[in-house]
Amino acid sequence: MKHSKRRVMALLIAIVMILAGSIGAHFVNTSGGTVKVSRIAFDTDQGKLSGLLYLPKGASQSSPRPAVVLTHGYLNSAEMQDANAIELSRRGYVVLDIDMYDHGHSRINRDKYSGTDFFSLWSAFWTNSIYDAVQYIYEQPYVLKDADGNGIIGVTGHSMGGFSTTVALAKDEADYAANGFRKISCGLSEGSDFSYSGIVGVTAEAADKAGGGRIMGKVAARYDEFFFNDPETTGGTVRRKDYVATPDAKTFLEQESPAADTWYDTSDGGKRIIYEPSQTHPWNHFSKTTTADAIDFYQTAFSGYTDGISNIPSSSQTWMWKEALECLALIGFVLLIVPLAGLVLKLPFFSKSVTGEPVPQRQEAGTGTKFAGFASLVFMILLPALFFTSLWDADHTETGMNILFFAGIIFCVSGIYAVISSRKETAYQKNFRTGGIFVAVSGALLSLVIRTPMYQDLTKWTAPAVNNIAYWTIACALISLLGMSVIYVSSKAKNGTGFDAYGITFRPAVIVSSFAAALLTVVVSYAVLFLVDKLLLTDFRIWTFAFKTFDANILRAVFRYWPTFFVYYLISGAAIFVNTNTEKLQGIKGYLLAIALNAGGIFLWLIRQYGTLFATGTAAHPGASLSGIVLIAMVPTLSIAACFSRALYKRTGNVWLPAFLNSMLMTVMTIANTTVYFR
């Protein structure tokens, strides 16, 4: 009874946090009710675009306003432009913040774009997204046009959205030659140069010629992981930049020796600027500095149109309160999961998931044993990080991959030898033989995975960024299984340790009921998220980590990726169970070790990567651009999963429920936040 009351109280606290955070975030998002925010969707020649429309109070057909179309980068969604959307709409501008095609709630018409190679799939969405949104917003009666029909519309996108911005400006100038008016009057790209837009013909020279007297700008972060590179520099892009010193920037600004953060007049009658904040690529959309740059840019670009516009200083910003409040709701959402699962376990069928309360194990006191145990834990924590770049790149000729391949073979042979040599039928020999089987199988599977191309077919594995994560995940799972198997053979088999010490039971009723309990918990949790989104148009997030709503058309991708992540969370859950279920790790220490086992290595990798970048100007792994950014969100993902694993195995006595729950919850979260083709 005491435990039930505690779970209900924890559930109520979580719900209060969700409500308080979400209602507060909605208040900030609507600028205290002065801006109407709504989710809209409209059909285009390319498919369906969805977005968040920010309509300031007073904007109407009789009082039209300047408008700005915003969009995000590759793998993200509209909410990544929250800062710009809130601050620009707060000042009176109409804002349309879109999900690019194949992201968020938007989808492209694959009957029209039928290519199945990466370039065909990738290039279709960003070359059209912003300009298609401009066609829609230009026709709205509350959007300002001048006497000649020119739209008073700005475009801004981050990263791949920046390329969409650049291409939209060029397309608009091409249309101007045919129809005699421009729909876009200004554009600011963030976190993008001309490297990809150049593929479709919009180089720095072409963008300069297509300026048409517009006001244009770029945000070029000095530590951007991808772009703004000196063409003379080789050996990776994760290094310090000075974009205004490059030939492309000089062409764009029409200056021989330009300076950052300085306006320049151009030969076509326009104005241009390049901002150079000292930040990384994803930092752009979580920065008061960059947001102030965007505000200043549009206050300059729209300076001739002041009706209904508030001249609020760019230093006055409120968007960060939405982030803080949504983070509060995120914490509430995370805290909701375990007590909700605990209540589900009280129901008749789902109670079969519980096999008993785990009995904490007494640790052996020998100094040598303690040191060996500590050393093996440190080694297991660091291994995923040591081989991270090798596994992410999946280069089968790379040294790290070869090390893993041959290590797998060596341990496979060793495991087979252990099985053959343990012929006696004593309890120890049986355990030794079982451990040898696991060593042999995990070693063989690791070598097979290292040499086998996986997650390559984009018509089946339709979330390209997740493919790299999935490959790293399955390899890490096998590395962990191999490590546990070797430790079992070398030290635990002699003590009579069985599967129960790892939280493993093979009873079908336990497995089936655990799956059902996890599914019900995830469905109810996401129902809360969808309800909040429906009523308040907010979700649960902080920076690049978010639980957000999704369309049902991504579920096919979720089902395909789920088994991979299930294998990982089952094995990692067993590792957490056996390493934290001790007498000395019953409190917070156990949770900290669980987090370290799941996320400690990659956290240290990030510290080393970015520490060296900021200290020396060159990252520890200069070629790890996208991979390093992806890891930022993986740290909280794996940390939360570790806490769920420990909390739920303590309630059930086994790892099945946390493995099912973590894999379901995190797979949906991951797929909902990224690019998904063939919806």
Which structural class do the helices and strands define?
A: alpha/beta
Helix count, DSSP H or I runs of 4 or more residues:
19
Shape label: globular
Average pLDDT metric? 93
What is the terminal separation in angstroms?
47 Å
% residues in beta strands: 5-15%
Biggest β-sheet: count, sense, barrel? 10 strands, mixed
Residue share in helices?
A: 40-55%
C-alpha-based Rg, rounded: 27 Å
Instruction: Show unreliable segments.
Output: none
Number of strands: 12
Mind explaining what this structure looks like?
- The protein has helices at 2-29, 82-90, 118-126, 129-138, 160-179, 204-209, 247-253, 288-301, 319-344, 367-386, 388-393, 399-421, 427-451, 464-492, 508-536, 555-580, 588-616, 626-652, 656-672, and strands at residues 35-43, 47-56, 67-71, 94-99, 107-108, 153-158, 186-190, 215-219, 264-265, 271-275, 540-542, 545-547.
- It is built from 19 helices and twelve strands.
- The two termini are 47 Å apart.
- The radius of gyration is 27 Å and the shape is globular.
- α9 (319-344) packs parallel to α18, α10 packs antiparallel against α14 (464-492) and α15 packs parallel to α19 (656-672).
- By secondary structure, it is of the alpha/beta class.
- α5 (160-179) links the parallel β6 and β7.
- Strands 1, 2, 3, 4, 5, 6, 7, 8, 9 and 10 form a ten-stranded mixed beta sheet that branches. It has a two-stranded antiparallel sheet with strand order 11-12.
